[in-house]
Each structure stands twice: as C-alpha cells, then as structure tokens.
Design a protein that fits this description.
It contains 22 helices and 16 strands. Helix 3 packs antiparallel against helix 4 and helix 7 crosses helix 8. With about 575 residues, the chain is α/β, with parallel strands linked by helices. About 60% of the residues lie in helices and about 15% in strands. The strands form three sheets. Strands 8-9-11-12-13-14-15-16 form an eight-stranded mixed β-barrel, surrounded by four helices. It is rod-shaped and about 155 Å long. The chain binds ligand C2E and magnesium ion (2 copies). The site of one magnesium ion has 5 residues, from strand 13.
C-alpha cells in the first residue's frame, strides 16, 4: 500500500520534471525566435510594426535569464543542469554569430552573467539546505532527549512501569474524577516477602528478572484505566479506579494474590515468592493521594507483621495503632530523662534444690499518660529509633549497681541475665562500653549473663559471632533465649560460645495441655544441651505439673511464676534476706 509520504514524493518528482520540460521548451522556442530575428534579412512583419528587432532580442534574452533563474530556484539540481546546458548552448550559438556581426556580443555577456548568477544562487541554495538540515537534526535530537528525560522522570527503567511521581500524579487526577463521579478508588500496596533471599541466592540480575516477570503478571490483572507502578525495590503500587463497590477492589486483590500461586522460573529453578498486600480505599481511608498511599502502606505492614503472604485492608484501628506508636515513640525519647524506666528481676532456681541461682532483669516503662507499658511494645520502638543503645546501657549499668548492693547486703553472688537486642550487638563499641561499666561498678564479670534470642544468635551476619566471642572474652556468660521458636541450627550451636539454653515457655505450656510433641521437644533439647555441655533452663513455669515434668527430665534450672514472679529490686533484697 502506498503511504501518504511516498505519494507526495512521487507527485513533487513528476511536477519537477514537468516544470523543467516546460521551461526548456520555452527557452528553446525563444532561442529559435532569437535566431530568426538575428538571421532573417526581412523583418518579421507584424512584430516589426510593434517593436524594433534589437529591443525584442533584448527582451527575449532577459526572459531567458528569468527562465534560467526560475529553473535553479524551483527545479532543484536537474533544473540547474538544464539551465546551465541551455545557457552554454546560447553562448556557443551567439559566438558563431559573433563572427558575422558584433551585435550578439551583449547577448554572450548576458549568458555568461546568467551562468554566474545561477551558479551563485545554486551555491547559496545548497548552503541554506545544509543549514536547515542541521537545524532539523538538532531539533530531532532535542526532541529525543526531551522524550528520554520525560521517560527517566516518570518511568522505572527496569520494569518500564510508571514510577512513584507518575503514580501520585495520576492518583491525584483519579481522585478529582472520582469526586465528580462519586466513585471509589482502590490503592493497593504490594511488598514481596523475602525478596532479599532471591537476590542473595540467585544474584541481583536474576532478582531483576523476577521483578520484570512479576510486573508482567500483575499488569495482566488490571484494566487499561488502572495504573500499576513500581515504587522502588520490591514495592509495587496499584490504583484501581472507577469502582462502585468495595467488592470490586477485593476481586482485584484476590487476582493479585492468586498470581503468586505459580512459581517464578529463574535459571530453570522454580521460585515461589509471596507478597504482603495492604489496601486503602478512597474516600473512606483518605481523600488525598499521600494519605491513601500512607494508609495502604500501614495496612501492608500489618500484613507483614501478622505472618506475611496475606492482604490487609486499612481500618480505623490500624490507623489509631500507628498514631499511638508515633506518640509512644515521641515519649520514649524522654523516658530515660524522666526516670520512667525501671527493672524487674525474676528469680531463676535450681530444679533439684529449688534454691535461687540467678535473676533475669526485665525492663519496664511506666509512662505518665499510658501507664505501665510492656517491653514487647516499646523495645521494638526503641530498636527502630536507635534508642535501644542508651536504654540498653542504662539497663546494664543499673543491673551492675543492683548487683553491687546485693553483694554488700548479703555477701552472696548471684548471676543476673540481661536481654540484648540485635541492634545493640551491631554497635562496635558495645563491648568496650560494657567493659567500662563492669570496671566502674567493680562487678564480677562471672555474675553477668547476656541473653540473646535464638533468632539473633543464629543470624547469618558474621558480626554476631564476633561480638559474642568478644563478650565471652570479657568473662560474661551467654544464654540463648526463647530456644526452639526460631530457626535453630545445630552446627551453629556447636560453633557458638553458649553457656545456657532457655527453653521457650510455649513448649512448657505444652506439658499442661498434654502435648506429647512439646514434651518430646523439651526432653530432646535437654538431652542435646547436656551432650554439648550446655546448661538448660525452662522459662514460664507456672504449675506443679510442669515443674515435676522438668525435674524428671533433668532440666537444670527453672524460671517462672510458679516459683517467683518478676520482683522489684527492694523485693528481691527482702526475699534474699
Ligand atoms: P524474655 O526474655 O523471654 O522474658 C521472659 C518473659 O516471660 C518476661 O516477659 C517475663 O515476665 C515472662 N514470664 C516469666 N515467667 C512467666 C510465667 O510463669 N508466665 C508467663 N505468662 N510469663 C512469664 P516480659 O517481662 O514482658 O518481657 C518480654 C520480653 O521483652 C522479654 O522476653 C525480652 O525479650 C524483652 N525484654 C525485657 N527486658 C528487656 C531488656 O532489658 N532489653 C531487651 N532488649 N529486651 C528486653
Ligand atoms: Mg530473656
Ligand atoms: Mg524468653
């Protein structure tokens, strides 16, 4: 099929030749006329009556000049060649006549002049064309750069999806339309679970391929008017517009969750990846783009915290929770200065004799507005904000001071366990700081035990083992807390400098519910620890039945409300007296 461009080209090509033919015919006709005027002895009757022959020859020569010029101006290269040939012809013919009469001399000069003029015009035309060409090229490259800049500013280069800026822009437009049409918009926040492990095991290039494949899969769940974007890393956002019922959002969410059922094939290996998804809906969860995205994010975090691989809708409770957490975080910054932190000490007893051998220091926060706050609530906040460092040091210092007081009163040495977070272990100064506190308070290092949870202890990061060895070198002992709840690794159990394993209360509870599996795990753990030369303590012992089972299983130590609840320092002193 002929395109419009081809057609115009053909048309102008034909017109060009037609023009040349017409001008050439005209030129040769006038040349013939000139020859006639110059050679006929008898003047041409009618013309001679109107005008003198020499004047007419002058006019004709000028017309020929005009035709030559028009040919160069209007008929491109071929026109120039035709004009040149015609004028050279005229010079030759006039030169022949010059032998007979000098009257043809002005004509020859005129033809030479016209050759100079048309050549100059042609050169000028060439220069102008080159100049226009250059401008056109620059304009094209500017257009290209503008397009590229626009793409870079609004698209993700890896997945070719819209980026955050474009998503927010479109969401604002969608909100404007939804307000006018009274429709709903679903904002869906998708975050992959454990995407880091794909990158770590398969490499970043394969991780990128997975993201591209995911972008293709999820795009298939959407309609044309919806926007799917990558916010960065493994975070994707989706806006589903023009909805009339919340159920319609749900249909899309279900489709998205289903798209993770099929494995991703990376280097011929099947990879199952799941996602945590948070949903907010306009106008219920917010009336502007920023708020809607923030609330979808809050819902996504809730999905992550409640076990991953699920979706959660934003709700008033969720939003209130976040607000409360923000308020608590602000208050936590002042907790130390306001003396709102204090410690409980929970006794740990020897199973065989029931005598107290040590205590676990348990942190509490008594806030003026919120009252007594559990460490399970504020420790994660302290970890997130970095406040765990000063708070952790305060705990260690307070424990050492209490240890000193106890020794002065009672003369006996008790082991005191201090819980430590991963964030504290990351600090390269922590061991030096603990060492200074121990020296300043003249604490016997053998009385201090550092407790870290199993998930921290068996964390793959090399600094964990390094830090534990440094602590061990100080002379303190190491306990593994909540044993059995994380990913235990027997080889790391062998490698780590562990003195005590604390069996989690989840298994101890199983003794009362008659769970034969929990009982078997407890017995197995005690046996394993004994074979490795590690002591075992059972946490959260609440009943006589649990105590008797643990005694029979030869668990070394016991901690729990059955013997002693966590006590204040003064209560501990009374108890020991
Ligand atoms: P954890 O280290 O496993 O502490 C044992 C938890 O079990 C304590 O909860 C204790 O009060 C509770 N418990 C002890 N016996 C019983 C019992 O018979 N029945 C029941 N139901 N519970 C019992 P608590 O004090 O709320 O501490 C919770 C967690 O907070 C601790 O778990 C520990 O991981 C963390 N934590 C406490 N103090 C600190 C601290 O100073 N620093 C750090 N990083 N974490 C701390
Ligand atoms: Mg503990
Ligand atoms: Mg524990």
């Amino acid at each position: 099929m002929k395109t419009k461009k081809n057609f115009t080209f053909e048309y102008s090509f034909k017109l060009n030749y037609l023009r040349i033919i017409v001008y050439v015919i005209f030129y040769f006709f006038t040349s013939f006329l000139l020859k006639k005027l110059a050679t006929e002895d008898e003047p041409i009757p009618v013309i001679h009556m109107l005008i003198e022959s020499s004047v007419l020859r002058g006019i004709i020569t000028q017309l020929q000049m005009l035709v030559s010029l028009l040919l160069v101006l209007k008929a491109n290269r071929q026109g120039y060649v035709a004009a040149l040939v015609m004028n050279i012809y005229s010079i030759l013919v006039s030169s022949i006549f010059l032998i007979q009469s000098p009257a043809s001399l002005p004509g020859i000069i005129a033809y030479i002049e016209i050759i100079i003029i048309i050549s100059t015009v042609r050169d000028y035309k060439k220069e102008t064309a080159a100049y226009i060409n250059e401008i056109e090229k620059n304009r094209n490259s500017l257009e290209q750069s503008e397009k590229r800049l626009h793409y870079m500013a609004f698209y993700d280069p890896l997945t070719e999806l819209p980026n955050r800026a474009l998503f927010m822009n479109r969401l604002e437009q969608s909100i404007y339309l939804a307000k006018r049409n009274s429709t709903l918009i679903g904002v869906i926040f998708i975050d992959l679970d454990a995407f880091k492990s794909v990158n770590d095991t398969m490499g970043h290039a394969e991780g990128d391929n997975l993201l591209k494949e995911l972008a293709r899969r999820l795009s298939a769940c959407l309609r044309k008017e919806d926007t799917f974007s990558r916010f960065g890393g493994d975070e994707f956002l989706l806006q589903v517009v023009n909805l009339h019922k919340i159920q319609e959002v749900n249909t899309v969410v279900q489709k998205i969750m289903k798209s993770f059922d099929k494995p991703f094939i990376i280097q011929n290996v099947e990879f199952f990846v799941s996602a945590s998804v948070g949903v907010s809906v306009f106008p219920v969860d917010g009336e502007d783009a920023q708020v809607l995205v923030k609330n979808a994010d809050i819902a996504m975090y809730s999905a992550k915290n409640s076990g991953k691989n699920r979706f959660v809708y934003c709700s008033t409770e969720l939003k209130n929770d976040v607000i409360k957490q923000m308020k608590l975080t602000n208050k936590l910054y002042r907790a130390l200065d306001c003396n709102e932190l204090f410690l409980y000490f929970q006794p740990q007893v020897k199973t065989a004799t029931c005598e107290i051998v040590g205590f676990e220091a348990l942190l509490r926060w008594n806030n003026s507005e919120y009252g007594l706050i559990s460490p399970t609530v504020f420790i994660p906040l302290a970890e997130k904000t970095g406040l765990i460092k000063p708070i952790g040091l305060w705990v260690i210092k307070t424990v050492c001071e209490e240890c000193k007081k106890c020794r002065n009163n009672n003369g006996k040495n008790y082991r005191i366990s201090i819980n430590m977070s991963l964030e504290q272990l990351k600090d390269i100064n922590i061991v030096n700081e603990i060492s200074t506190i121990l020296k300043d308070t003249t604490t016997n290092t053998r009385n201090i035990q550092i407790e870290i949870t199993e998930s921290i202890a068996f964390n793959e990061e090399p600094f964990v083992l390094k830090r534990l060895l440094e602590l061990k070198n100080l002379g303190v002992s190491i306990a593994i807390d909540d044993f059995g709840t994380g990913f235990s690794s027997l080889s790391r159990l062998k490698l780590f400098p562990i003195d005590l394993l604390k069996i989690d209360m989840e298994f101890v509870r199983g003794i009362s519910t008659g769970s034969s599996k929990d009982k078997a795990i407890i017995k197995g753990t005690i046996q394993l620890a004994k074979n490795l030369g590690i002591e075992v303590l059972a946490e959260g012992v609440e009943t006589h039945e649990q105590f008797m089972f643990l005694k029979e299983a030869e668990c070394d130590e016991i901690q729990g409300n059955y013997f002693h609840k966590p006590l204040l320092a003064d209560e501990v002193r009374l108890l020991l007296d």
